[in-house]
Amino acid sequence: MEIRTAEGLIEAYVFEEHIEGGRIGEIKEAFSRAPGVQFVGQFVGSFSLFGRVVARDLAELQGRITNEYWEAGIHSKWSLNLTAYSAVAPKRGSPPICALVRARATEDPFDVRDALDDGFLLGGEGAAVINDHDFDLLVDVGGDTVEHALDRVVALRSFPGIGRTATSFADLADAVRPTKS
Fold first, then answer.
1. Is residue 2 one of the residues assigned to a domain?
2. What CATH number is attached to the domain comprising 102?
3. Do the domain assignments include residue 46?
4. Which residues span the domain enclosing 53?
5. Strands 126-129 vs 44-45: parallel, antiparallel or unpaired
6. Local mean pLDDT, 10-residue blocks, the chain (181 residues)
7. Is 159 helix (H, G, I), strand (E, B) or coil?
8. Is 166 exposed, middle or buried (0-12, 13-18, 19+ CB in 10 A)?
9. How far apart are CA 92 and CA 80, in angstroms?
10. What per-residue confidence (pLDDT) applies to 136?
């Protein structure tokens, strides 16, 4: 099975859960300047900072996690996007207000992701199978208001194959989307 993006890169996500008070802006800025970073945003919920990165291979990713990302203040859990080949994935485009939902699949997570892609996901939303110790899927839903994003989360929770979830919300007005890789 191929897990690389159309550009031949691997894609990884970080869910930064523990940041010392007052350091979120500083860490977000430092991380956004690190190599391979494609998205960084502050969230409210089960994690406080989220990042999407790309790398040529696992060795390069591991080196960055140990060096540049650690030095930027990123010290939390990482997951690979095991379905990075899909054009519809989290944080490649997003509604102005978004919810990132980590979900446990009650069925094959690849089948659930495909089913989400076949009609549940709206423009700018995306889903990926991830290798998290507690969750199988990362789903990016949202809308123009936090209430609309919440409606999408509630709908996702009743989607066939979705079990337990953990959700964080963000207003993406100050999210960083560096153009370098």
1. no
2. 3.30.70.920
3. yes
4. 10-83
5. unpaired
6. 91 90 90 96 94 97 98 94 93 91 98 95 94 96 96 97 97 83 43
7. coil
8. middle
9. 15
10. 97
